[in-house]
Design the sequence.
């Protein structure tokens, strides 16, 4: 298969240098975190034990890394081979999204030297939703690297070199769909146990289903968005046709999401809180408008042929999923009167540093390895 | 052939129904049973004079070897107690304060309230902890913490309905801290420090069954009559007579989130004293119910894996180098 090609070109561009600088700043604060403890760099507290790092780097970061998951469903499970050229670049964002999410967990947990306990059966607590999330994410990081490995092999030995891995790839593809299904839904289940601390606008036993649907939608949207950004950044022709067809999947998913979401709110009689005032109310409406926007934009078929509309709709979709996750983990969370949380500057810089490492990794990989599809012939 | 979109939707819908079915699981409302020999405490706010002897002695006896505040690295958790230290006046439970007396006074009402771990019958912290660092003792029902297992993820803090476990935010090598019912003292045949050093009998220790009976009996006492309140333990020989106050007709901790081994009585409604209003069913059992439906014996994941692997096997034919049909 020669549908992917290395981009070539210089790696140390200006964009790379900026990312590098941010990574350094983040690294500096990380040194402080390990020398002086979490309190020295973060605004997390006993009321808000999880802050920006868990919410953004892990919960949102892995959802943004669902491109590989979403494309695998489409291409391998629903057998839509025509989208195959997009698989590898989607996988690459997933590889980085997930690997760095795992790294973020490591810096966030207080007793990181015990990290390996999560992998040792004698410690396992099967009632713990977090155990399932941690195990699935750890396994999935490994699966992603294997799924991506043909890119390395082909780099060394040409298209034939990946034959061996490809023979058993279907096993990893199946894992690559099963594991995200499990942990993306469980990321939602995580907050069920917080009970009354999460506002009724978000607290529901349907959290796992809502998290799963929105993760798949975010995966597709990010694949669309990334395809545009890489076209612009590297001056390649737009893949509008294929991407437009792909984006057609999004409205259906979002309508399913909204039906479950609003049906559940109505069933529980929780709509009152939507007019209760304060940040939760504002963010509830922002979230819902963000979910409705891409539906409205992408439902009419002609819109899906316009590059600008596509790109923007995909962006709103990604934002919708991100805001939903922020709302569930931070905005809607209130442990007791008197607690509040807003990330500290060093916390934000660490997150920016991690995003920068992702960008740098992506830039290196697409230039050096066969990742991006060969330009569509007009 | 691979599974088509309709099958996929069916699969998704099926998992949705599985989830929906959890809304009313067919289990008992409380999820878990309390061990018959469980021990705990009864706090009667109408007897509490706010002397904070329990707070002082909780800190004193838990900073000793075996105590929940003891640090092998020689840190001084007895903050106020050294030559350089000033009196520490915590406003809430902290990683250095496992027990706190808070005061409430408003609209002519006043009361104290004593906060620490409730030793829940179905504890959120135990259900949540991925590495079994939080555990409920099968005999005494004490909810214990083992730092050697803990990874410091703080999910127990998210999961505790009473915001009890506290994290050492300022330490490079932090631990979680919470009341462990003075298990080091119980092992020596002593009773919890907060009960032993309570001068009025506001905090008493005993088997939960007996504490429940005592609390129910107190609610039946006639306001203004005199009652001999036991001091130290529920069956203590030493008793102090006192006129019975007007109780709020509620034993906090009897049914909250499946029941607690710490019971409270007061003359002011508990929500005013800062206690959350909680359902009888524990959040832990709701969460475990969802996990159980989806992952019971891993059957669903294995079936789904089989279907996925089959579909992927067929659609990767060309990549395996076989000819397409
Ligand atoms: S009060 Fe909190 S820390 Fe104590 S047993 Fe219950 S859930 Fe665990
Ligand atoms: S912080 Fe420690 S005790 Fe609490 S849930 Fe995590 S591993 Fe368990
Ligand atoms: S039982 Fe012991 S650790 Fe718990 S509050 Fe009482 S004195 Fe403190």
Sequence:
């Amino acid at each position: 298969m020669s549908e992917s090609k290395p981009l070539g070109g210089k790696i140390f561009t200006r964009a790379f240098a900026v990312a590098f600088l941010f990574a350094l700043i983040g690294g500096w604060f990380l040194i402080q975190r390990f020398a002086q403890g979490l309190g020295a760099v973060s605004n997390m507290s006993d009321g808000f034990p999880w802050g920006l790092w868990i919410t953004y780097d892990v919960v949102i970061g892995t959802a943004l890394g669902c491109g590989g998951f979403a494309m695998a469903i489409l291409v391998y499970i629903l057998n839509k081979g025509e989208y195959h050229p997009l698989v590898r670049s989607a996988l690459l964002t997933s590889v980085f999204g997930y690997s760095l999410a795992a790294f973020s967990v490591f810096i966030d947990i207080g007793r990181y030297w015990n990290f390996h306990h999560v992998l040792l059966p004698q410690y396992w607590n099967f009632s713990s939703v977090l155990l399932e999330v941690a195990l699935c994410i750890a396994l999935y990081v490994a699966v992603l690297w294997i799924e991506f490995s043909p890119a390395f092999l082909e780099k060394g030995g040409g298209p034939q070199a990946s034959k061996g891995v490809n023979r058993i790839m279907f096993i990893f593809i199946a894992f690559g769909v099963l594991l995200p299904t499990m942990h993306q839904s469980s990321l939602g289940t995580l907050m069920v146990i917080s009970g009354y601390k999460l506002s009724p606008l978000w607290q529901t036993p349907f959290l796992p289903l809502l998290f799963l649907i929105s993760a798949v939608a975010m995966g597709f949207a990010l694949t669309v968005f990334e395809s545009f950004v890489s076209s612009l950044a590297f001056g390649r022709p737009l893949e509008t046709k294929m991407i437009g067809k792909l984006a057609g999947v999004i409205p259906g998913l979002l309508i399913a999401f909204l039906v479950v979401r609003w049906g559940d709110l109505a069933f529980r009689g929780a709509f009152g809180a939507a007019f209760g005032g304060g940040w939760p109310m504002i963010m509830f409406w922002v979230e819902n408008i963000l979910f409705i926007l891409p539906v409205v934009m992408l439902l009419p078929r002609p819109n899906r042929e316009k590059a600008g509309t596509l790109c923007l709709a995909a962006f709103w979709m990604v934002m919708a999923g991100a805001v939903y996750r922020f709302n569930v983990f931070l905005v809607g969370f209130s442990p007791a009167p008197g607690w509040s949380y807003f990330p500290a500057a060093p916390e934000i810089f660490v997150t920016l540093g991690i995003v920068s490492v992702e960008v740098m990794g992506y830039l290196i990989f697409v230039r050096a390895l066969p990742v991006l599809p060969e330009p569509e012939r007009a | 052939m691979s599974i088509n979109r309709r099958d996929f939707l069916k699969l998704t819908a099926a998992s949705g129904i599985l989830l929906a079915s959890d809304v009313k699981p067919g289990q008992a409302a409380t999820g878990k049973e309390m061990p018959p020999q469980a021990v705990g405490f009864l706090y009667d706010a109408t007897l509490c004079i706010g002397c904070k002897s329990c707070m002082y002695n909780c800190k004193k006896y838990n900073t000793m070897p075996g105590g929940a505040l003891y640090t092998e690295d020689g840190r001084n958790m007895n903050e106020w107690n050294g030559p350089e230290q000033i009196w520490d006046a915590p406003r809430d439970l902290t990683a250095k304060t496992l027990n706190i007396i808070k005061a409430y006074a408003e609209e002519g009402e006043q009361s104290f309230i004593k906060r620490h771990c409730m030793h829940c019958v179905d504890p959120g912290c135990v259900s949540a902890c991925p590495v079994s660092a939080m555990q409920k003792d099968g005999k005494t029902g004490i909810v214990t913490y083992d730092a050697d297992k803990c990874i410091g993820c703080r999910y127990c803090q998210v999961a505790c309905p009473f915001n009890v476990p506290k994290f050492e935010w300022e330490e490079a090598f932090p631990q979680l801290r919470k009341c462990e019912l003075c298990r080091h003292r119980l092992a020596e045949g002593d009773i919890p420090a907060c009960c032993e050093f309570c001068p009025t009998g506001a905090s008493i220790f005993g088997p939960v069954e007996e504490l429940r009976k005592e609390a129910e009996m107190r609610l039946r006492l006639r306001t203004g009559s005199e009652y001999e309140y036991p001091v130290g333990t529920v069956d203590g020989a030493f008793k102090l007579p006192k006129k019975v106050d007007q109780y709020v007709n509620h034993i906090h901790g009897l049914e909250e989130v499946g029941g607690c081994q710490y019971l409270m009585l007061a003359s002011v409604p508990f929500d005013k004293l800062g206690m959350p209003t909680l359902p009888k069913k524990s959040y832990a059992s709701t969460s475990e119910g969802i996990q159980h439906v989806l992952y019971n014996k891993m059957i669903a994941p294995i079936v789904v894996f089989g279907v996925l692997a089959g579909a992927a096997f067929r659609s990767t034919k060309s990549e395996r180098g076989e000819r397409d049909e």
